[in-house]
């Protein structure tokens, strides 16, 4: 296990007024190591000291706090002068895992969907010029994205049966199109890892804006297909997009997100990623997409 003492030392150095009795370290994040103090304050430390995206997240946070009121989001209140890490009051709740989600009654799932749609409306309507001033960049071009996903596919296919790889290739063929859309500010990592649920089964908060970009807003809803295509369609219904190709764009995002998980499972030796990514193949076999 990673030693938390160097991180605690930096916290005490920059914020000597903070006192605590217990601390624990979380190292399962892709981009950050987290230190939790007394289950009340969380500090995030980028794995790479020079992380441009982290600086962008810090610059954007005050503006997001003013714009988003539908669900709680992190409010960065402990920022050292060198801006090398950040701390905030923890949002209390549990991750909305697919297993937890299955146990929630339909009526409550509908309420969760409406909460998330309100959140996405606030986020997606955020002024793009303001986001650009904070340093937020646009997503990859279609050509760059295509090249990257081809590389991920090659990695994933090595572990798949011929039947499963054929299913993925068919999905890519169906949805790998350059759909027209209006670029908007999008979370880009709206998965169950980054959504919290309260004891009364409402959305307690949305966290981790480290991948935020100016891109296709349908991608945020597409990732929610981890809860089932039916839930994704419910989200689209409440979201009320104007474009007819919105659902296809959402499914495209789900397919390529799942493909990435499959590839990361191989390169990072994470069985849980394979299980999550493979749900897309099972969904296809069931005829939902």
List low-pLDDT spans.
Answer: none
State the name of the first-level CATH class of the largest domain: Alpha Beta
Q: Could you tell me the radius of gyration in angstroms? A: 19 Å
The proportion of strand residues reads 5-15%
Structural class based on helices, strands and sheet pairing: alpha+beta
Can you summarize the main beta sheet?
4 strands, antiparallel
CATH topology-level name of the largest domain: Aminoglycoside 3'-phosphotransferase, Chain: A, domain 2
Measured between the Cα atoms of the first and last residue, the distance is 41 Å
CATH level-two architecture of the largest domain: Alpha-Beta Complex
Shape estimate? globular
> Got a strand count?
9
Percent range for helical residues? 40-55%
Mean pLDDT: 96
Q: Biggest sheet: strands side by side, in what order? A: 1-2-3-4
Number of helices: 11
At the fourth level of CATH, the homologous superfamily of the largest domain is Aminoglycoside phosphotransferase (APH), C-terminal lobe
What's the number of structural domains? 2
What's the order of the H and E elements? Answer: HEEEHEEHHHHHEEEEHHHH
Verbal overview:
With 289 residues, this protein is of the alpha+beta class. It has two domains: 74 residues, Phosphorylase Kinase, domain 1 (2-Layer Sandwich), CATH 3.30.200.20; 192 residues, Alpha-Beta Complex (Aminoglycoside 3'-phosphotransferase, Chain: A, domain 2). The chain is 48% helix and 12% strand. The strands form three sheets. A four-stranded antiparallel β-sheet has the order 1-2-3-4, with helices on one face. It has a three-stranded antiparallel β-sheet with strand order 5-7-8, with helices on one face. Helix 7 packs antiparallel against helix 10 and helix 10 packs antiparallel against helix 11.
